[in-house]
Amino acid sequence: MTVDLRASRRILPAPMIDRSSYSIFSVIKQAIGKDLTKFSIPVVWNEPLSFLQRLAECIEYSSLLDQAALTNKPVERFHLLTAFIVSTLSTNLERMSKPFNPLLGETYELKMEGDTPFHYISEQVSHHPPVSALYIRGQHWTLSANVEPKVKFQGTNVVAVSEGRWILRIKKIVPTSRSASQSSFQSCTEEDDEQNSNVNNHSDEEDEYTWTSPSILVHNILFGRLWCEFQGEFDLQHTQSNQRSVLTIKTQSWLSSQSTKTANMFKYTGFIYDGKDKLGAFHGNYGHCYYAIDNLEDAQFKSSSSSCCSAGGHNCIHINTTATVSSPCDLILTPSSRLIWFRSLSLMNDNELALRSQYYFFTPFALCLNEQVSSVVLPLTDSRYRQDIQYLEKGNTDAAAAEKHRLEEQQRADARKRDNEHQPLWFKKDENEEYVYTNEYDQRQFNHCPNLFSS
Ligand SMILES: CC(C)CCC[C@@H](C)[C@H]1CC[C@H]2[C@@H]3CC=C4C[C@@H](O)CC[C@]4(C)[C@H]3CC[C@]12C
Hints:
Number of strands: 23
Number of helices: 10
Bound molecules: cholesterol
Structural class: alpha+beta
Helix content: 10-25%
CATH topology: Porin
Oligomer: single chain
């Protein structure tokens, strides 16, 4: 069955309300040191998306995964996969609003056809602690994760960490009989996927890659303009070998000068390893771009203001600098820097960019996530049916707040009535305590789904 959930709106029904007379600090000061995911925040601080929809944004640049699946060069594949993870960070910048907490049992589906088809299926599988399980099937790969966000208020900033690993499985390329240099996939159709349905089984036909998300830091909770950045390192590990890629985000300490701070904004550097041997290097700015550094000798990263210095370096110029996130991309390139990915926002014109600030800084991809679709039958648990999100989209904050409150109360009452542990409909806990997709959603039998959002 083909289900195209592609939507096309360029704008939300109403712009967001001006927050200048609201203080986020006055709301969350009661929550110092506590977990903000358990805390009800007034809807003016929400964006009209459920967290399950927000997580679907990670797949905007799925073409990088398609490309990674098609290459048989390990270093090139690591570049494409690392660039993909960088792209999943980029979509969070500027988005200083809280997505709605999904209700237990809420689902969200997104399916795209065309050159880079994918099918995203997610479910809120646990409420305390909140866990969102997701599964994405692409042409030659699957990506799954259990996202368990922990959001802490630390006085002047908010730190969000996401526990749980991301697992990417790519079908192995097998040489065809026609020519040894040409290669193709043995099995890559959806039917094969279904026969081979236990995705959790490690098989010789798949390469597995895993990583965890770095933490995100939201600044200026007390006063000033809210902004955020990622912190630390991440490690992308290939399960079947000792190969991995390690990305380090440049940090900005209080001691660094203002100019160093902006010069380091969102920059990262990293290496691809086989055991201890360096196989490759890369650098970039996660708000803008990813560059492979083809000559390892060029990768003499210094801890000074510029990301990478080598005589004859030139600036990263493919970006329209008015499209900046908060700072221009002043990355200094090495002679062998090669562009692998850049953010599509850099292709927007000034008018389009100005509009973004009125629409929660949604990207064109995010704008369509909550668009109503009529051509397809969705389960009643789909986030698109949440009235509180729809009210906020239309700028009706009072109705949104009332409906959000009603759903939260209803959820509490349901939890009190429940004697057994809640069983998710589309994911099952495995022996590692991870929720794994069962493939059943694909049957599209939704009659038994609860009418989660009705009154
Ligand atoms: C009210 C305001 C100030 C607080 C806003 C907090 C927002 C920005 C926080 C709360 C939960 C956070 C999310 C928690 C988990 C993940 C998964 C990770 O793979 C990418 C980042 C992402 C998607 C975070 C993005 C930022 C986030 C949405």
